[in-house]
Design goal:
Distance between the termini: 64 Å
Protein name: 3-ketoacyl-CoA synthase
Active site: 224, 303, 387, 391, 420, 424
Strand content: 5-15%
Domain Beta-ketoacyl-[acyl-carrier-protein] synthase III C-terminal: 386-466
Low-confidence stretches: 1-16, 493-516
Strand order of the largest sheet: 3-2-4-5-1-6-11-10-9
EC number: 2.3.1.-
Structural class: alpha/beta
Number of strands: 11
Largest sheet: 9 strands, mixed
Shape: globular
Domain FAE: 80-368
Mean pLDDT: 86
Length: 516
């Protein structure tokens, strides 16, 4: 007997009912206004020429009335345009691509761990298990100082990494946009764990000899969501400085923050964080209206620092041996979920179509009045956005957001592939993800992008962008030489060993002196 096919009639009917409901609610104003306008037009056409002429003559206007009405219209228009926020454009951005000499295959990472933690094999085994489940690939990179055995996290090495990452991203941005250093009016640099004196923003000003009246800011200690905080700060500054360019640099310097102790909660960042950085050009100049890639629509920030558990869930501290590292709490995912809930509660009314907001409201009223056990309605954010850039903090973060927001595998593809190719690059990961979508040729004019990032404190921040023009596949992207290999299958465990689907075994880094 042939297999019995499932009955799709009910699901098809529900699908068309839902589509009809969404169209009806989202276009209710047009559907109501069109009959009214048609009725008025029919009544006007029924009038004869003499009746229309007599109606016009019955309207008497003197000079004073005309002048007052004209003044009122001009005054209202002036107030409207002066109070309207300036449009912020994302002209272009550039992501740093580490050199192949900085690559850290799993075999290299574990070999170093065994040598550095030779007195604690359980910590080595723990790191291996984390790597196997992390979602990282064989091509992620660590800075040169970490390749030494033991690592050499000196101030000089940390400055060297900062200069390499930031200057490379800035040079690439200048090349892509044609921007000259003297054209930068606002500079914002964010780096959480490396905050030297002079600051990193001063380092950029010194390198490129920027103007003496530049408005510079240096943000530190704000975690992986600091990139969107910098975007929010740039937006606010651009609102009060017309005809200006703002450059935002987002990075995390790994060199001084590589933990060499035995505490498992503090070894976790060693397995996830990798080199990376991005430079972004924002502008409020009208001349950039047609050149810019994106337009900033919303920035929503949520801070849960008033709660003690949230405040301490990502905490820099010393272990029992006095070694400094970042302690990641077991409550991290639960706290991130609460922060995300607060954030989407705020951003939902700004971006969701009326049909989703109405369903959410009706469900909420039903739970309050009829049955509190009713399952709460999760809004369909796929109705509001075409693309999602979820902070590539780890496989668990992406899995949870995909599940809670009911996203498809394609919606989180950019996040998973960024984690695989570049690792957790902290605040710059969102820009690698946006670069992935562009490299795949998926970004079209009018598409909406939702960037979501989490950071210590604890923070959840969102930014919404609208694509200004259809973007051709860039040839100078960090994805340019490998995009054809993606997406790749993120493998599950196979006999305790992680087997990548492509690329084979990565070449081992060369040895120079005591550098492995």
């Amino acid at each position: 007997m042939p297999p019995i096919l499932p009955d799709f009639s009910n699901s098809v009917k529900i699908k068309y009912v839902k589509l009809g409901y969404q169209y009806l609610v989202n276009h209710i104003l047009y559907l109501l206004l069109i009959p009214v306008m048609v009725g008025i037009l029919i009544e006007v056409l029924r009038l004869g020429p003499d009746e229309i002429l007599s109606l016009w003559r019955s309207l008497h206007f003197d000079t004073v009335q005309i002048l007052c009405s004209s003044f009122l219209v001009i005054f209202i228009a002036t107030v409207y345009f002066m109070s309207k926020p300036r449009t912020i454009y994302l002209v272009d951005y550039a992501c740093y691509k580490p050199p192949v000499t900085c690559r850290v295959p799993f075999s290299t990472f574990m070999e170093h761990s065994r040598l550095i933690l030779k007195d604690n094999p359980k910590s080595v085994e723990f790191q291996m298990r984390i790597l196997e489940r992390s979602g990282l690939g064989e091509e992620t990179c660590l800075p040169p100082a970490i390749h030494y055995i033991p690592p050499k996290p000196t101030m000089e090495a940390a400055r060297g990494e900062a200069e390499l990452v930031i200057f490379s991203a800035m040079d690439s941005l200048f090349k892509k946009t044609g921007l000259k250093p003297k054209d930068i009016d606002i500079l914002i640099v964010n780096c959480s764990l490396f905050s030297p004196t002079p600051s990193l923003s001063a380092m950029v000003i010194n390198k490129y000899k920027l103007r003496s009246n530049i408005k510079s800011f240096n943000l530190s200690g704000m975690g992986c969501s600091a990139g969107l905080i910098s975007i929010d700060l740039a937006r606010d500054v651009l609102q009060v400085h017309p005809n200006s360019n703002a450059v935002v640099v987002s990075t995390e310097i790994i060199t001084p923050n590589y933990y060499q102790g035995n505490e498992r909660a503090m070894l976790l960042p060693n397995c996830l964080f990798r080199m990376g950085g991005a430079a972004i050009l924002l502008s409020n100049r009208r001349s950039h209206r047609w050149l810019a890639k994106y337009r900033l629509v919303h920035v929503v920030r949520t801070h849960k620092g008033a709660d003690d558990k949230a405040y301490r869930c990502v905490f820099e501290q010393e272990d029992k041996e006095g070694k400094v590292g970042i302690n990641l709490s077991k409550d991290l995912m639960a706290i991130a979920g609460e922060a995300l809930k607060s954030n989407i509660t705020t951003i939902g009314p700004l971006v969701l179509p009326a049909s989703e907001q109405l369903l959410f409201l009706l469900t909420l009223i039903g739970r309050k009045i009829f049955n509190p056990k009713w399952k709460p309605y999760i809004p369909d954010f796929k109705q509001a956005f075409e693309h999602f850039c979820i902070h590539a903090g780890g496989r668990a973060v992406i899995d949870e957001l995909q599940k809670n927001l009911q996203l498809s595998a394609e919606h989180v593809e950019a996040s998973r592939m960024t984690l695989h190719r570049f690792g957790n690059t902290s605040s710059s990961s969102l820009w690698y993800e946006l670069g992935y979508i562009e490299a795949k040729g998926r970004m079209r004019r009018g598409d909406r992008v939702w960037q979501i990032a989490f950071g210590s404190g604890f923070k959840c921040n969102s930014a919404v962008w609208k694509c200004n023009r259809t973007i051709k596949t860039p040839t100078d992207s960090p994805w340019a030489d490998c995009i054809d290999r993606y997406p790749v299958h993120i493998p599950e465990l196979a006999g305790g060993v992680l087997y990548p689907k492509f690329g084979g075994r990565s070449p081992h880094n060369g040895v120079s002196g005591n550098k492995a």
